[in-house]
């Protein structure tokens, strides 16, 4: 069911072969401070999937606010603990975006993927 003022987001990034086990381990216990930053930024229903044949991490989330870019910069990208988390996880990944140097920078680290179909069923 849709949430008023919600935005669905899907993003992809490559996971380095040598980092698969470590990435899975760290995500089994995401730092509470990182989760708190996501909550403050109105992010809900966040999942990351791994497609091993293409080495792709696929993240999906819902943003329930009304200023995604602004809130993301203020509450997530500016959070010191999230920046520390990204230093760990970015080293395990390869961005698909030319010129990307890391999460929270001007050129996005994760590539946003456009939605081409949605079926929500009956409420």
TrEMBL record:
Domain of life: Eukaryota
Naturally occurring in which organism (per UniProt): Schizophyllum amplum
GO molecular function, one term: racemase and epimerase activity, acting on carbohydrates and derivatives
InterPro entries per UniProt: Dimeric_a/b-barrel (IPR011008), Rham/fucose_mutarotase (IPR008000)
Name the UniProt record assigns to this protein: Rhamnose mutarotase
């Amino acid at each position: 069911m849709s949430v008023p003022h919600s935005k669905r987001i899907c993003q992809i990034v490559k996971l380095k072969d040598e980092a698969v086990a470590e990435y899975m381990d760290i995500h089994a216990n995401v730092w509470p401070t990182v989760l708190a930053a996501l909550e403050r930024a109105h992010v809900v229903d966040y999942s990351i999937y791994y497609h091993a044949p293409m080495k792709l991490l696929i993240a999906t989330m819902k943003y329930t606010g009304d200023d995604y870019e602004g809130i993301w910069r203020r509450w997530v990208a500016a959070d010191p603990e999230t920046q520390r988390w990204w230093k760990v996880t970015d080293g395990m990944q390869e961005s698909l975006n030319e010129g990307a140097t890391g999460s929270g920078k001007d050129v996005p680290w994760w590539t946003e993927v456009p939605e081409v179909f949605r079926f929500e069923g009956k409420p």
